[in-house]
């Protein structure tokens, strides 16, 4: 089960805090995903990069910071009730908590109304140890 909600803690920008923070950026009709590397801090040399799919650990609170470089994007996990926007120059966040490992469709749309297949992906929920192993693989694009 994946839940969207607040855990009551916020950061300096008023966004929900989490055990893990991942940045998802809509750009050029694609989801660009940035995960902290082994140092646990975003925007450092060991960050893990990905496209389209979102990988999260089970049994951890995950904050997804959503950004857009160019358009308004919808970030949705319909079967789990997650629906958020990524808008240029605005900060949005979603908070996720998954109890069990599994996979769920990640749907996105660019608000011009066209279907962009590169916004369709999967939310892959890993057992915590498997997430750490995945995170230590060589960085993707």
Short description:
The chain is mostly beta strands and 141 residues long. It is 6% helix and 46% strand.
Describe the model:
The protein has 141 residues and is mainly beta. The chain has one helix spanning 128-135; strands at 2-4, 20-27, 30-35, 48-51, 54-57, 61-68, 73-77, 82-86, 92-98, 102-110, 121-126. The protein has a six-stranded mixed sheet with strand order 1-9-6-2-3-4, with no helix packed on it. A five-stranded mixed sheet has the order 5-11-10-7-8. It is globular and about 40 Å long. The model is unreliable at 1-16 (pLDDT under 50).
List keywords for this structure.
Immunoglobulin-like; about 140 residues; about 45% strand; 11 strands; six-stranded mixed sheet
Mind sketching the topology for me?
Layout: E1 2-4, E2 20-27, E3 30-35, E4 48-51, E5 54-57, E6 61-68, E7 73-77, E8 82-86, E9 92-98, E10 102-110, E11 121-126, H1 128-135
Parallel strand pairs: 2-6, 5-11
Antiparallel strand pairs: 1-9, 2-3, 3-4, 6-9, 7-8, 7-10, 10-11
């Amino acid at each position: 089960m994946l839940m969207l909600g607040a855990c009551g803690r916020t950061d300096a920008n008023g966004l929900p805090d989490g055990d893990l923070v991942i940045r998802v950026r809509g750009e050029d009709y694609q989801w660009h995903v940035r995960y902290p590397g082994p140092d646990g801090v975003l925007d450092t040399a060991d960050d893990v990069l990905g496209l389209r799919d979102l990988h999260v650990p089970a049994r951890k609170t995950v904050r997804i910071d959503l950004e857009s470089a160019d358009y308004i994007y919808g970030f949705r996990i319909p079967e789990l009730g997650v629906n958020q926007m990524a808008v240029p120059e605005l900060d949005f966040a979603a908070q996720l908590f998954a109890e069990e490992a599994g996979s769920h469709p990640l749907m996105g749309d660019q608000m011009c109304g066209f279907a962009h297949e590169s916004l369709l992906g999967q939310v892959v929920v890993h057992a915590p140890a498997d997430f750490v192993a995945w995170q230590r693989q060589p960085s993707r694009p």
